[in-house]
Specification:
Layout (H helix, E strand, L loop, with lengths): L1 H19 L7 H13 L7 H35 L12 H14 L4 H25 L5 H26 L5 H10 L7 H20 L1 H7 L3 H6 L4 H23 L5 H13 L3 H25 L7 H19 L6
Helix pairs in contact: 1-3, 1-13, 3-8, 3-11, 3-12, 3-13, 4-5, 4-6, 4-7, 4-11, 5-6, 5-11, 8-11, 12-13, 12-14
């Protein structure tokens, strides 16, 4: 419980700091005054500009970062435990590549924002369905290994399709939009986007949380898990669908943000241990807080906004190497 408390406290501190920091600085006292006035309906003693900045600009973006970071981290923890591999991330089954292709097709055909988000979501789900169908057709090998290998092959194929679309795209309008989307950003987030991702993320996270103790059984061998009365095939299918759902929902509004689903579960594992009943809540809290921190850096460290994918790679890769160098033998 101490680890979960520290993760929650860290996320809270990061959120408060993100509300204060930006081109327009707001003191913590004014932030609390604005929030209190909104909650109670009382008089506002702070600058009215602070109220506008907090609730119309920063808060929607911070909430989106919390949701996207939590979703990617939860999906990463689920895939790592389910496939018994510490190097697995949410895009292992081609989720990110499929979602990216859907979004890029939407941008290429000049669709509206809602249509692009829907195509992103459908692309991720369709890709995983394709990977699982191919994996089911190849029954002569280990099921987990086949899924991973098929996912890598499909992701490579979709990557080539993305490259082809980039070549065909208008270099003055479509290509910059596609490139910027692939780098990840929360710049254009609004309240409607929050609703569009909150529902699928909640639907996907709920079964993971309610059945979080069962994922511990999937870290065992197939024979051991079945000996304990677990239908590993159905349970694995459920976890894959839920993790794919929340990943696709996150990618639909943020673009591709790497390293969160790979790095954060390792941090959570060091903080609370490998038990998924504690690992999942810790991953949710750390993932949300981490992406809020990175997004705050993205909009404040330079005169222009830095894409999130660049910052997560710059921060994540060295830190991951440090984890590999310092961790004890074995990760479960």
């Amino acid at each position: 419980m101490k680890g979960l408390f520290l993760a929650a406290l860290g996320a809270l501190v990061v959120v408060i700091a993100a509300l204060c920091v930006g081109k327009y600085l707001i003191s913590p006292a004014d932030v609390f005054d604005v929030i209190w006035a909104r909650i109670t309906g009382g008089p506002l003693t702070a600058d009215p500009t602070a109220d506008t900045v907090v609730f119309n600009i920063r808060l929607p973006r911070i909430l989106a970062a919390l949701l996207v970071g939590a979703a990617l981290a939860a999906a990463g923890a689920t895939f790592q435990g389910m496939f018994r591999n510490p190097l697995v991330s949410p895009d292992i089954l081609g989720v990110s590549a499929g979602a990216s292709l859907g979004a890029i097709l939407g941008i290429f055909t000049s669709q509206t924002v809602w249509v692009i988000q829907a195509m992103t979501f459908v692309g991720g789900l369709f890709t995983v369905a394709l990977v699982m169908a191919i994996g089911a057709a190849v029954r002569r090998h280990d099921a987990i290994l086949v899924l991973v290998l098929v996912g890598i092959a499909v992701e490579t194929l979709l990557g080539s399709a993305i490259s082809l679309i980039k070549i065909l795209a208008d270099p003055y309008n479509q290509l910059p939009a596609i490139t910027y989307w692939l780098l990840g950003s929360l710049t254009a987030i609004n309240r409607a986007d929050l609703v569009s991702i909150l529902i699928p993320i909640a639907i996907g996270v709920a079964p993971l949380y309610l059945l979080r103790w069962r994922l511990n059984l999937l870290t065992l061998s197939e024979d051991e898990a079945r000996a304990l009365g677990v239908d590993t095939r159905k349970l694995r299918l459920l976890f894959i669908v839920c993790a794919t759902l929340i990943t696709s929902a996150a990618v639909s509004v943020s673009g591709i943000i790497g390293w969160v689903g790979l790095l954060i579960p390792h941090m959570a594992r060091f903080l609370v241990g490998p038990d998924f009943s504690r690992l999942l809540p810790a991953s949710l809290l750390l993932g949300g807080g981490y992406l809020v921190l990175v997004d705050t850096l993205a909009r404040t460290i330079a005169g222009i906004e830095v894409p999130l994918g660049i910052l997560t790679a710059v921060i994540g890769a060295p830190f991951f190497l440090w984890l590999l160098a310092t961790r004890e033998r074995g990760w479960q």
